[in-house]
Amino acid sequence: MEQFIQKAATLVEAFPYIRSFRDKIIVVKYGGSTQPDDGGSDTILADLVFMETVGMRPVVVHGGGREISRRLQEAGLESKWINGLRVTDADSMQVVEETLFGVVNRRIVEGIRALDGCAHGISAKEAGVMHVQKHFAQVVSNGTGVPVDIGFVGNVHRVDPGPVRSVCENETIPVIAPIGLGPDGRSYNVNADTAAGEIARTLEAEKLVFLTDVNGILSDSADPESRISTLHVNDVDRLIRDGTAKGGMIPKLQACVRSVRGGVNKTHIIDGRVPHALLLEVFTREGIGTEIVQ
């Protein structure tokens, strides 16, 4: 009997959140590091179906770095990174696009449908959702920043929310592959964290949630118990400067700051490996990660 009482108490706790988030857009960046390799059981997909079923409007923007690296290796192509961005020549871009939309996107869509949810895969390029400009990495040489050509990598110039909103209005979960349309009509690889932030900002989302493989922002990287529960946007630059935030966490934090200052109510960085991480963060008082707020 005790376990059933606890389940009822959990539903009661979740009810105010379900009511307040009804018809609100929640953008979820689903990182490749938290996706099962074989497309098997994934509680995140169940969470997304639940959220849509109770009237929320989840929008998924996914990565796929691990899968891309594996397929590049199989094709005899090197994975090289500059400032956290994958160097993407023409051959690599073909593999990136085929992997993101043809493999990872399809796997997520099929996983949601297997749980009786409705999902629609979107290539941000083909649907005209994400228009980009070519990105040049800045590398420090002799104390000054030098622009370096890293291939078909794009900065988001403009987001057209129309196709995404149309899918949401049909009570279907949009699943977006972050491939941008360049001014030359070519495909460009876009950092998925940056893409999620720009899409959330343009959609005026209620929340932006990053699913990653750490349990939030740690004040001490050696201490997993040093998680910062709430972080104000004005403190983010300091964490980047002093090295508290580094590597792949930097574009996530930058996307959070830009999103919050652009109108997104709250952003969250959570450990997507935790079972039902999305429900725990969205529908409980305590949450499980770091929220970044204005």
Count of runs of 4 or more consecutive helical residues: 9
* Inertia-based shape: globular
Strand order of the largest sheet: 5-8-2-1-11-13-14-12
Mean pLDDT over the full residue set: 88
What would you note in describing this structure?
With 294 residues, the protein is of the alpha/beta class. Helices cover 37% and strands 27% of the residues. The chain has 9 helices and 14 strands. It has helices spanning 2-20, 43-53, 65-74, 90-114, 162-169, 192-203, 236-241, 249-261, 277-282; strands spanning 25-30, 57-62, 81-82, 85-86, 119-123, 130-141, 144-159, 173-177, 179-181, 187-189, 207-212, 230-232, 266-271, 290-293. It has an 8-stranded mixed sheet with strand order 5-8-2-1-11-13-14-12, with helices on both faces. The longest helix has 25 residues, at 90-114. It is globular and about 65 Å long. The mean pLDDT is 88.
Sequence-ordered SSE layout with sheet pairings:
Elements: H1 2-20, E1 25-30, H2 43-53, E2 57-62, H3 65-74, E3 81-82, E4 85-86, H4 90-114, E5 119-123, E6 130-141, E7 144-159, H5 162-169, E8 173-177, E9 179-181, E10 187-189, H6 192-203, E11 207-212, E12 230-232, H7 236-241, H8 249-261, E13 266-271, H9 277-282, E14 290-293
Parallel strand pairs: 1-2, 1-11, 2-8, 5-8, 11-13, 12-14
Antiparallel strand pairs: 3-4, 6-7, 9-10, 13-14
Helix pairs in contact: 3-4, 6-8
